[in-house]
Write a structure and sequence with these properties.
By secondary structure, this protein is α+β, with helices and mostly antiparallel strands. It contains 1 helix and 5 strands; from the N terminus they run H-E-E-E-E-E. The strands form 2 sheets. Strands 4-1-5 form a 3-stranded mixed β-sheet, covered by helices on one side. The longest helix is centred in the first third of the chain and has 13 residues. It starts with 13 loop residues before the first helix and ends with a strand. The relative contact order is 0.28.
Length: 80
Amino acid sequence: LAIVGGIIEPEEEALDAARREVHEELGVSCNEWKVLGNRFRTDVNRGMGWVHPYLARDCSYSSNTDTNNNNNNNNVQNNH
C-alpha cells in the first residue's frame, strides 16, 4: 500500500493538489473527498514537508484531463 502524494503548486489549494495527484498517479477521478485531519509534519525524503490527508471515494478511471473540474458534484466532508 502506498499513499498518493506530491507537491502543492503555487496558488493551489491542498484539495485541488490531492485531486490532481490522484488523477496523475492513478488515472482516476473521485467524487467524494473526506478530510482526515489537520495537516501534519512529515520527513519524507528528508524534505520536512506537510501532509494534508484526504480519503477519496467514489472513484472511477477517467480520460478527463481537467483535474480541477468542479462541475462533477465533488463532495468534501470535513471531520473536525
